[in-house]
Design a protein that fits this description.
Structural class: mainly beta
CATH topology of the largest domain: Nuclear Transport Factor 2, Chain: A
Strand order of the largest sheet: 3-4-5-6
Distance between the termini: 26 Å
Number of strands: 6
Shape: globular
Radius of gyration: 16 Å
CATH architecture of the largest domain: Roll
Length: about 100
């Protein structure tokens, strides 16, 4: 879980926080260059008032050659027809498919 406050400048996070379109594009490019055999499955989307909830699974091989399989939830905040914020929560396993782990 991550929380960022631009008003106070305080950031408390256990994950990575990205601000702005360019930061998001850089992260997508990093993943494309680093991860292999990436698959997205089981996509479900739901609208709830000013929010859109998107759930799916992702699996592949990460930059350390470890297989991963994660359940992902994206929460989009919508205002005046535009996405104003996106929070992503990943829960899953990394490297647990190797016999030596």
């Amino acid at each position: 879980m991550a929380h960022a406050s631009r008003d106070t400048g305080e950031i408390k996070a256990s994950g990575k926080i990205l601000f702005g379109l360019e930061a998001m594009v850089q992260e997508v490019r990093r993943r494309q260059a680093s991860w292999r055999n990436l698959k997205y499955e089981n996509l479900v989307e739901r609208a709830a008032g000013d929010f859109i909830l998107q759930m799916f699974t992702a699996c592949g091989i990460d930059e350390k050659d470890r297989p991963f399989h994660v359940n992902v939830e994206d929460v989009y905040c919508v205002s005046q027809g535009l996405i104003t914020k996106k929070d992503t929560y990943w829960k899953g396993m990394w490297g647990r498919f190797h016999k030596d782990n």
